[in-house]
């Protein structure tokens, strides 16, 4: 019930100004975000890699409406990738990129600018010896994102994409993208979408997730199971077993700060476990989507607000 207003608030500049100033916000944000700076991001990456995790770093930001800002975001990724190379972390840490942060939503020439900036990031990743995964945003961007991914894959075949199981189209997209070498991160989907394009009921989304996962696991690509849902994690393990997939032919992924004990349990089984690790000052949209996913997060936030001095 609270999901809809929270996801609407995630895109409201007025609510953003209010929430960012609330004293308890910072404490909760720290649970989901590595910190504001590159150094903090590298330090948390180092710690998690030491604990057996792989990482996908996200330089926070989205919906950029300024071409200079889009180029600055690509530069921030280049610096991040250089730091991963210099610290020897690139072997275990890649990056995730939102195309709207590198220009996709610009009114003029947005797709071309996003493609050019994403290409810069892929070149820096190739130089560092690691990979890039393109995040997926709301459904109005899906065709554009998959089109840009297709172009980039001609030069960077290791480029990963995210597919969202809640979209009706995704079963077909999974079939298209299940070929050899194809890295696909399957998640449920985090945006507010209309019934015309997306399943609305949780049970329907979960069933669609299983159908999509079956297609990816039966294919020849590299499925990335991005979920904290215990049932789906169990099913992913069974599907992998039925397909006789080895631990290095698929991976589990979770968000930083969510179900750390389960992350450790999966590491202990010998599975590949990657943590999506955001950093930077532009945490608002990401943070609001995490509140929307779990009422307990919002309750914690409101309690902290009510009891502050
Ligand atoms: C690595 C990764 C990358 C992602 N990339 C994208 C993307 O590009 N585009 C996109 O639309 N979505 C993305 N998502 C988000 C995803 O779509 C879901 O919104 C999110 O993962 C919650 O769904 P779930 O599968 O964990 O299942 P849910 O049914 O939502 O949750 C299952 C259980 O996980 C725990 N949990 C889930 N969310 C939270 C939370 N916020 N706080 C605390 N506990 C929680 C709870 O115990 C919950 O019962 C990504 C998720 C991951 C893990």
Automatic annotation (TrEMBL):
Catalytic activity: L-proline + a quinone = (S)-1-pyrroline-5-carboxylate + a quinol + H(+)
InterPro entries (alphabetical): FAD-linked_oxidoreductase-like, PRODH_bac_arc, Proline_DH_dom, Proline_oxidase
Top-level EC class: oxidoreductase
Keyword Ribosomal protein: no
Name of the featured protein: proline dehydrogenase
Keywords (A to Z) from UniProt: FAD, Flavoprotein, Nucleotide-binding, Oxidoreductase, Proline metabolism
Domain Proline dehydrogenase: 47-300
Keyword Transmembrane helix: no
Cofactor: FAD
Pathway: Amino-acid degradation; L-proline degradation into L-glutamate; L-glutamate from L-proline: step 1/2
């Amino acid at each position: 019930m609270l999901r809809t207003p929270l996801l609407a608030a995630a895109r409201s500049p007025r609510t953003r100004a209010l929430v960012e100033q609330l004293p308890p916000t910072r404490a909760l944000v720290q649970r989901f975000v590595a910190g504001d700076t590159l150094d903090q991001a590298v330090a948390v990456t180092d710690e998690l890699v030491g604990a057996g995790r792989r990482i996908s770093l996200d330089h926070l930001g989205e919906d950029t409406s300024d071409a200079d800002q889009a180029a600055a975001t690509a530069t921030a990724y280049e610096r991040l990738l250089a730091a991963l190379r210099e610290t020897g972390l690139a072997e275990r840490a890649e990056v995730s990129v939102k195309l709207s942060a590198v220009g996709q939503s610009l009114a003029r020439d947005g797709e071309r600018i996003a493609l050019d900036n994403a290409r810069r990031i892929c070149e820096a990743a190739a130089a560092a010896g690691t990979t890039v995964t393109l995040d997926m945003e709301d459904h109005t961007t899906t065709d554009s994102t998959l089109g840009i991914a297709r172009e980039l894959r001609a030069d960077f075949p290791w480029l990963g994409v995210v597919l969202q199981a809640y979209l009706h189209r995704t079963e077909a997209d999974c079939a298209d993208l299940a070929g050899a070498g194809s890295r696909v991160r399957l998640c449920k989907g985090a945006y507010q979408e209309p019934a015309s394009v997306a399943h609305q009921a949780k049970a329907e989304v979960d069933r669609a997730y299983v159908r999509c996962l079956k297609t990816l696991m039966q294919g020849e690509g590299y499925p990335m199971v991005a979920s904290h849902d215990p049932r789906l994690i169990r099913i992913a393990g069974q599907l992998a077993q039925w397909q006789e997939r080895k631990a290095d032919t698929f991976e589990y992924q979770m968000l930083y700060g969510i179900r750390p004990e389960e992350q450790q349990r999966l590491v202990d089984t010998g599975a590949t476990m990657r943590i999506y690790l955001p950093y930077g000052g532009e945490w608002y949209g990401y943070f609001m989507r995490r509140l929307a996913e779990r009422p307990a997060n919002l309750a914690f936030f409101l309690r902290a607000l009510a009891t502050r001095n």
